[in-house]
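Board notes (copied after class):
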Amino acid sequence: MDVTILLEDARSGSEEALNQLVPLVYDELRHIASNHLRTAGPGQTMLTTDLVHESFLKLIGSRNLSWQNRLHFFSIAATSMRQIIVDHARARHAGKRGGKSVRVPMEDGLAVGDQSLDEIAALDEAMCALEKIDARSARIVEFRFFGGLTNEEISELLNISVRTVIRDWEFSRAWLFRFLTDQETD
């Protein structure tokens, strides 16, 4: 059955559609989650499985989302995962300033030093700033860097040429580098 139809049916509450959908999207969601956690760097203690489950529940539970196709679903999943990681990092950072800490067991997640909590917040701030000046370029960064999508997949998803994806990616990298460098010197 078509994944897009199953996504819509699952979002509408069909248990049968949800049961059919999970095996079709789970491996790709794990791949995207793994990319997100790898790019989050040191200090990230969230497990890949937890990120997949939280994102999937958020996506299926949202009544105001609809998906154009399978690729669109995965791009929204990548965005959702980025938001969850940033929220998780902020909560951990807040916990270190007087909140209660919870130890996360190491299975398939990463757990090293906490120096990247500020880096995750800085990257999120940079992405939000980029989105305000060039939303398409910000989406391309999100899809490629966080979602692990290829230039061709991004091109198809955004209905633009591969060359435009490459050009926007190059612009975004330079812009984000400058933004983050400027933040470090302030």
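Comment from the instructor: The helical segments are 3-11, 15-40, 48-61, 70-95, 116-133, 135-146, 151-158, 162-185. DSSP finds eight helices and no strands in the chain.
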